[in-house]
Structure formats: C-alpha cells, structure tokens
C-alpha cells in the first residue's frame, strides 16, 4: 500500500499517541488513581485510537474508492473491503 508508506510519519505519530495514552491509562490503574482519572484516561486513549482509525479509513476511501484512475473492479473491491471492515468495527 503505497499510500500507507506515503503517510508513514503521520500514522506512526498517531500510533505513538495511542501508545502514550494507553501507557498513561496503565499507570493510572497501577497507581490506583481515582475512578474519574482512570475514566478520563480511558476516554483519551479511545479518542486517540479513533483518530487513527478515522485517518486510515479516509486514506482507504481516497486511494481505493474515490481515486479517479481506478477501474470499476478495483473500486468495487475497495468498497467491499471497507464494508467488511466497518461490519467488524464497533
């Protein structure tokens, strides 16, 4: 996937943000932080992961569904792949 390689730095920054949020959540639980702090950290981790997933989905749409140079078979495959993924994403 050439578009993943092209966005590598941006995507890795998002992954590192997710990892940082999860590490902070682990510390909060390990340090027996109060419930509100743990919930806030969990929400931050979820938000960071959601941002990564959104960026990946938008990139997929741009390169595998909406690209002007795609033939109908490739466009359908891109759409089918995304439909299958969204069926598992909850």
3D architecture notes:
The chain is an all-alpha fold. The chain is built from 4 helices and no strands. The model has no long low-confidence stretch (mean pLDDT 93).
- The strand count comes to 0
Distance between the termini: 24 Å
Task: Let me know the average pLDDT.
Answer: 93
Query: How would a textbook summarize the main sheet?
Result: none
- Helical residue percent? over 70%
Rg from C-alpha positions? 17 Å
Shape: elongated
Report strand %: under 5%
Backbone structural class: mainly alpha
Low-confidence stretches: none
Secondary-structure element sequence?
HHHH
Q: What is the number of helical segments per DSSP (H or I, 4+ residues)? A: 4
